[in-house]
Design a protein that fits this description.
This protein is α+β, with helices and mostly antiparallel strands. The chain is built from seven helices and ten strands. The strands form three sheets. A five-stranded antiparallel beta sheet has the order 6-10-9-8-7, covered by helices on one side. A three-stranded antiparallel beta sheet has the order 1-2-3. The chain has a two-stranded antiparallel ribbon with strand order 4-5. It is globular. Bound molecules: zinc ion.
Amino acid sequence: MPKKIKGGYCYLCGTYRNTLTRDHIPPKNLAPRTSDATFLYAYACSTCNNKLSHDESKFRDFLAVTCSDESIPEANDAFEAFKRNIQRNDLGRAGMPHKDLVRILQGMGKKDIYTPNQIYLGTAPTISMAPDIDVKGILLKIASGLHTVHTNEIIPSSYRRAACLYGQAPPYPPMDRVDDLHVLGNVGSFFHYRGGWAPDDPKAGIWYMMFYNTLIGLAVFAPPSLQEIQERSVSSASDEGNNEGKLEV
Ligand SMILES: [Zn+2]
């Protein structure tokens, strides 16, 4: 696929541009040594293509440290890239650890684990993603790309968007019109996905994404008219606490 094409609509913002740039799906830095031919692609304006690059590199660092798995070569490549990053400019920091390493260490902690019935199971180590990483933006960008690759549709800006990491927030209630997850795919061995779209509205969809066989993210695109259905789903789950803030974009 060419790196640039002339004339087209950006798959992220939907704007017509005279030049579009090729965007890797998922981000190239998740598997820096993997051949370009392994990735999926969509075409974006350069603003959208570059907007999340800092967040994507912090996200990659997080995955590299928390999901490193010897059976996944791409995860090891990402970990090596992270190590090179934090070892750079060692002298300038006068022995202080690199800020990207500090950020990940700060996210490490311990948490009491309970069953759904509040029976205490013990204390387990946890790693939480730094709050300055726009995880929702990253998941929505990747899912938009998957959606465009499989449907040739660009999700309109009026559509509602929601995304979360599985386990971090309550799973987004799957909507009955798009719960048929008929597409299953992978990019190399480091990224697997499953998703689908509504038969009567190919612009609405739901996508599960699994990174390095470990971390699962979820993104949902729904037309504005489904708002009421979503709000009903949220209120029926309200005994779980106030989920609304987590589900709203
Ligand atoms: Zn754009």
